[in-house]
């Protein structure tokens, strides 16, 4: 089989992983959310699911997991933090962040896939770029547009998310490296190598 087509082929195992991470992202919304100082976009654990999906599934499978999750939300299931769901959330203050779920997971995966081995610091960097910077870049402008607040005001208010997001990035990196050490086949790098016929890379190191 052509390695290029193998890379994009979706197996039953891939579908199961995608469904698992869509479900994980939903579960991470169960603890609820916290809206500080009246901010229109709540603080949620679900961006941890975005980081993990990209790091452990790779770019396009991670993005598909987030698309599956958002499809369920769009269908009306109250899977977002705070029990939110339905089409209205995609035109509300959180719309940009929801788009960021898909793009962020893809970016995390793209960065991770560039490395021959996964280390804590590499996954952390990928999680910060895809799970934080991309999310802010998409979420803040759309939040400003929807709420009518100045962009600078929204950006300043979003600084409250930084400490929690850094903690989530650290957790994502730790979990990813731990999972890949315990179960090397879980690494998106191994799946890419099998598809392209390359020799497996060495096990991840701290």
Describe the secondary structure blueprint for this structure.
Blueprint: H1 3-8, H2 12-27, H3 46-57, H4 59-74, H5 95-112, H6 120-147, H7 151-157, H8 162-182, H9 188-196
Task: Give an overview in words.
By secondary structure, this protein is an all-alpha fold. It has one domain: Arp2/3 complex 21 kDa subunit ARPC3 (Orthogonal Bundle), CATH 1.10.1760. Helix 3 packs antiparallel against helix 4. The mean pLDDT is 86.
CATH class: Mainly Alpha
Report the CATH architecture. Orthogonal Bundle
Low-confidence stretches: none
SSE order, as H and E? HHHHHHHHH
Number of extended strands: 0
Total individual domains: 1
**What's the main sheet like?**
none
Strand coverage percent: under 5%
Q: What is the distance, rounded to the nearest whole angstrom, between the alpha carbons of the first and last residues?
A: 35 Å
Under CATH, the topology can be stated as Arp2/3 complex 21 kDa subunit ARPC3
Brief sketch in words of this structure:
It contains nine helices and no strands. With 206 residues, the protein is an all-alpha fold.
List its traits:
single chain; about 210 residues; mainly alpha; Arp2/3 complex 21 kDa subunit ARPC3; about 65% helix; globular
């Amino acid at each position: 089989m052509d390695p290029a087509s193998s890379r994009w082929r979706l197996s039953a195992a891939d579908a199961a992983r995608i469904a698992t991470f869509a479900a994980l992202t939903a579960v991470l919304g169960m603890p609820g959310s916290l809206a500080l100082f009246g901010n229109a976009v709540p603080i949620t654990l679900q961006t941890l699911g975005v980081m993990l999906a990209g790091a452990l599934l790779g770019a396009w499978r991670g993005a598909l997991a987030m698309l599956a999750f958002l499809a369920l939300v769009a269908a009306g299931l109250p899977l977002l933090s705070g029990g939110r769901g339905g089409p209205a959330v995609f035109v509300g203050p959180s719309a940009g962040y929801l788009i960021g779920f898909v793009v962020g997971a893809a970016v995390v995966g793209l960065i991770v896939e560039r490395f021959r081995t996964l280390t804590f610091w590499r996954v952390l960097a990928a999680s910060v770029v895809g799970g934080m910077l991309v999310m802010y870049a998409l979420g803040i402008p759309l939040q400003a547009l929807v709420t009518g607040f100045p962009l600078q005001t929204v950006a300043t208010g979003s600084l409250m998310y930084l400490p929690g997001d850094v903690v989530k990035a650290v957790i994502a990196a730790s979990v990813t490296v731990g999972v890949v050490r315990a179960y090397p086949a879980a690494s998106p790098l191994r799946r890419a190598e099998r598809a392209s016929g390359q020799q497996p890379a060495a096990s991840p190191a701290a």
